[in-house]
Write a structure and sequence with these properties.
- The complex is a heterodimer.
- Chain A is of the alpha/beta class.
- In chain A, 33% of the residues lie in helices and 25% in strands.
- Chain A is globular, with a radius of gyration of 16 Å.
- Chain B contains 37 helices and 20 strands.
- Classes of the chains: A alpha/beta, B alpha/beta.
- Strand 9 of chain A pairs antiparallel with strand 9 of chain B.
Chain lengths: 206, 722
């Protein structure tokens, strides 16, 4: 899978990022209508995703693998409850337009704005986060930087070429009479599943 | 709106009746200052950020060619193609070739003001292409056949009912005027446009020279789709979007969303660095290919501005439209009236002059009232009103003033005796003069009666005739103060002029009134006629040299600004420049001077027991001279109980001759002020600007009759007399 950077964590500013910023991140993300599930273990993350799928009556999920998802065994858990899961790029391309949920990992969060930073160089990462009505992003809750300035310090170290996005809540518009309306071209629901650092260390891919 | 055949007064009249526009803009303008402030709460040192953006942009524009070369090299190295387009024609040529080579039939666009500027969509539609705007607002105005009326909110002039009509027509079924429903209808209708497009066209909020990446700041998610689904991505961006380093983008992103829509960050911020993968269907199989990326750097007048010492400032614009959101005129009539071919408001006037032409600019530039509210919010610290004044100067240099105005300025304003005898004659009865074409252009002539504002009368006896009895040398004066009254205090508000004299004398000053003083020249220079302004400046310099003083005091901040500017105005005449500088150096605004003296002399700055007073900050006083604290202190020193009004520093709607020339537009601005005054429950409105006083007095008479209008000097003089 193509990545703008193979190891983002290595570039986070030492001493400036951490789980202590998570509460502010969570507050700001929720303020812009992102849904945040803060879980301690990989197993809990899988449970949250399966519940989301059940409650939304989802039949089809497109999923781009990330270490957190693999540690939690998300795809397998979804298949177990009878949901079609596609994770190969060609399959994602074929099914994304009709998928109910898109799953992907994100690299870090920004406390100042409640944004997450996504490495979107791989086409499949972008497809699953733009087209389905619900995008679920997996975030390591300890990887939160204070603000936009720090986020760009990270990016400036690793960004030669590729595609990087900040995602801050769901797609929105206020183009008609300045009335805020959620869900135009992008997902109308944006869910962040923040998994505590320990959980992933206990898992397969730390 | 194009430059030809505009009847701006008629357009204003129509827009003021447009309920949808008035409601949308009014609601937005009402909440914008507070939501913006809330969004800035956790932004850190905002002033430092603004300064950093400005410096970054200034450094960039000074070497714009080198930065563009670096950007092109970096983007090319990563596989993008960069094309430098001189104008719209060049863009069309490049894209037509590309479309032909790649067999492009369907194009989907995300927002690009640069493409609006060159009318890209109409051109490609005419050539038989299927072109679709995907930003909801842009799509709406595309269906309506309008131009954007705001840079960030292009369809803010339309109501949900109008939008429902356009949608019903386009989708060929009845669409109810329910906003959430309409947004979903647009999502469904436009989804296919993304999936089936052969080419995506986007703008860019910035282009980074360091690595050739572009940045897109959006809320709807359409720009992400435009840069993800079609196999070809074309970026159309102006040179002003170039920034040197990746970290420079952070500065813009700190203030752009906060200023534009009061968001800490938009839903999506996307960086695209070079060509990225795309999935293409070959037969039944989806295969990964590399998307083509073309970046078109549009000049269209920008590089000429970059070389202009003054107008290179337009490169400091990040297109957030904060300036529109606080503009008293824009928020009343919107961008179709206060705007040119593409760009709206004050910044739009300047961009229009360079990107569309002076003829287009000259049709609507007078709508900038110079209140300078925009200068407080602009992330790039652009002096928008200053640049508009400069463009006026250039327009006058190029083809002069309208004939009658020219006659008045050259013959009357430079001849104090003639000017003043006309003013005196006017006091005998305004009617005969109201018919004359000549006098209509005099700064103090208020033609026609307006229903929501009574008009001031010229005093029977001007200040200059009253002072003979008032001016007397006190025993042991602490200094000599020369009084520059300005026309309004001289001929309309002579009692306030007397108050100024009384307060200065009470401080122990000997006050003199150089009798040869005339209009400060501000109403003349504001139209761009610097030649006449220079003549007036020389006359006033001479008048004040005849009466040497320690300080020259004026109670009108616009006069202070004009007098302070004399040396700059006469900079090409070394002898006069020196003389003007010597005079200007002594010029002091009344309130700040008196407050300083009160402190020096140990006078009490707070005395109780007086009436409730609210204070109106004149635009010139607050934003040009930076004086806001002193007048408030003096109100309290005079015994007033200060109560603040909402938006105390928002323009009263007078702004020199604007309030008369565009009376219909001036009235709703005045009405807002009147409502804010009424809400305070104050008995007195105090002000420190004679121009505002005329306007406010007129509004009070008709709308809030119980409330009195006073200059701070009047309050102080009354206190002294008690």
């Amino acid at each position: 899978m193509r990545r703008t950077c193979e190891n983002w964590k290595r570039h986070l500013p030492a001493g400036k990022f951490g789980a202590h910023l998570f509460p502010e991140f969570e507050r700001r993300a929720k303020a812009v209508s992102a849904e945040v599930f803060h879980v301690k273990t990989a197993a809990e993350a899988a449970e949250v995703v399966c519940n989301l799928a059940r409650f939304t009556n989802a039949k089809k999920v497109v999923s781009v693998p990330s270490p957190l998802q693999e540690a939690a065994g998300i795809d397998a858990a979804l298949r177990e409850i009878g949901i079609e899961v596609y994770s190969d790029p060609a399959d994602i391309a074929a099914h994304v337009a009709t998928a109910d949920i898109g799953l992907s990992g994100v690299e870090f969060g920004i406390a100042e704005t409640g944004s997450v930073c996504q490495d979107g160089y791989a086409i499949e990462s972008r497809l699953v986060s733009t087209l389905p009505p619900l995008h679920v992003a997996f975030l390591d809750s300890s990887l939160i930087v204070p603000g936009i300035i720090e986020a760009f310090e990270v990016i400036s170290q690793l960004f030669d070429h590729g595609y990087i996005s900040f995602i801050t809540g769901p797609s929105r518009t206020a183009d008609i009479e300045r009335v805020l309306t959620i869900g135009v071209h992008g997902p109308s629901r944006f869910v962040i599943i923040a998994v505590d650092g320990e959980a992933q260390e206990g898992g397969a891919a730390s | 709106m194009t430059g030809e055949n505009r009847n701006i007064r008629k357009e204003i009249h129509e827009k003021l009746q447009d309920e949808a526009l008035r409601a949308n803009l009014g609601r937005f303008a009402e909440v914008y200052p507070s939501v913006r402030a809330a969004a800035l709460e956790n932004a850190g040192d905002v002033e430092a950020l603004r300064e950093a953006i400005k410096q970054m942009k200034v450094d960039t524009v000074d070497r714009i060619e080198a930065v563009a070369d670096a950007f092109e090299a970096a983007a090319t190295r990563r596989g993008a193609k960069v094309f430098r387009a001189a104008d719209g024609e060049a863009v069309f040529g490049y894209l037509m070739d590309l479309c032909r080579e790649r067999n492009v039939k369907r194009i989907v666009k995300s927002k690009s003001m640069a493409s609006e500027e060159i009318d890209l969509s109409p051109y490609f539609k005419k050539k038989g292409f299927h072109v679709c705007e995907s930003d909801l607002g842009e799509w709406i105005i595309e269906l309506a056949g309008h131009k954007p009326s705001h840079m960030v909110m292009p369809a803010i002039h339309l109501s949900r009912y109008q939008v429902a009509d356009y949608f019903s027509k386009e989708l060929d079924k009845e669409i109810p005027p329910d906003i959430a429903f309409m947004v979903q209808a647009a999502r469904q209708r436009l989804r296919g446009e993304f999936l089936n497009a052969d080419m995506g066209i986007s703008g860019a909020n910035f282009g980074i020279a360091e690595n050739g990446a572009i940045g897109l700041v959006t809320n709807e998610g359409n720009a992400r789709l435009v840069t993800t689904l079609p196999p070809i991505h074309v970026v159309i961006m102006g040179y002003e979007k170039l920034i040197p380093k990746i970290t420079d983008a952070a500065l813009i992103l700190k203030l752009l969303p906060r200023g534009a829509t009061a968001q800490l960050m938009t839903s999506y911020m996307t960086l695209v660095g070079g060509p990225t993968p795309v999935m293409v269907k070959e037969g039944e199989r989806w295969v990964e290919k590399t998307r083509e990326m073309h970046i078109i750097l549009l000049d269209n007048g920008r590089l000429r501005a970059a070389k202009d010492e003054k107008f290179k400032q337009i490169f400091q614009c990040v297109r957030c439209a904060s300036c529109l959101n606080v503009c008293p005129v824009y928020t009343l009539v919107g961008g179709h009236v206060y705007g040119g071919h593409t760009y709206a408001g004050g910044i739009g006037a300047i961009l229009t002059a360079f990107l569309s032409g002076m003829a287009d600019f000259e049709k609507f530039h007078e709508l900038c009232i110079g209140c300078r509210r925009c200068t407080e919010v602009c992330p790039g610290k652009i002096d928008i009103p200053g640049l508009i004044e400069e463009l006026r100067v250039r327009a006058v240099k190029e083809h002069g003033l309208p004939f009658v105005m020219k006659q008045v300025f050259e013959n009357v304003m430079t001849n104090r005796r003639l000017f003043h005898s006309l003013m005196r004659a006017a006091s005998l009865g305004m009617k005969p003069f109201a018919k004359g074409n000549l006098i209509r252009h005099l700064p103090l002539f208020f033609s026609g009666l307006a229903k929501d504002r009574s008009l001031p009368t010229i005093a029977d006896k001007p200040l200059r005739d009253r002072l003979k009895t008032l001016l007397r040398k006190p025993d042991n004066p602490i200094g000599r103060a020369a009084f520059f009254s300005g026309c309004t205090m001289d001929f309309v508000l002579p009692e306030t002029g007397e108050s100024v004299v009384k307060v200065l004398q009470d401080l122990g000053y000997e006050v003199v009134f150089p009798i040869d003083q005339s209009c400060c020249g501000k109403p003349v220079s504001a139209t761009g006629d610097l030649e006449t302004a220079r003549k007036i400046a020389r006359l006033n310099v001479q008048a004040f040299e005849k009466e040497p003083a320690d300080a020259i005091i004026t109670g009108c901040p616009a006069c202070v600004e004009a007098l302070h500017g004399y040396a700059e105005l006469l900079k090409d005449e070394p002898e006069w420049r020196e003389r003007a500088a010597a005079v200007a150096h002594k010029v002091r605004e009344f309130c700040s001077f008196v407050a300083e003296e009160y402190v020096k002399q140990g006078r009490p700055l707070k005395t109780a027991g007086g009436p409730k007073v609210t204070y109106h900050d004149s635009c010139h006083m607050k934003r040009v001279l930076g004086i806001a604290v002193e007048p408030r202190k003096l109100i309290e020193a005079a015994g007033g109980e200060l109560v603040e009004m909402k938006d105390s520093d928002k323009c009263c709607g007078m702004s020199g001759i604007f309030g008369v020339k565009y009376a219909e537009l001036s009235m709703p601005i005045l009405e807002q002020k009147m409502n804010n005054i009424r809400d305070t429950g104050a008995e007195i409105v105090a002000c420190a600007c004679s121009g505002c006083m005329v306007q406010l007095q007129g509004g009070l008479d008709k709308q809030v009759p119980g409330v009195k209008m006073k200059h701070v000097a009047d309050l102080l003089a009354e206190k002294i007399e008690k």
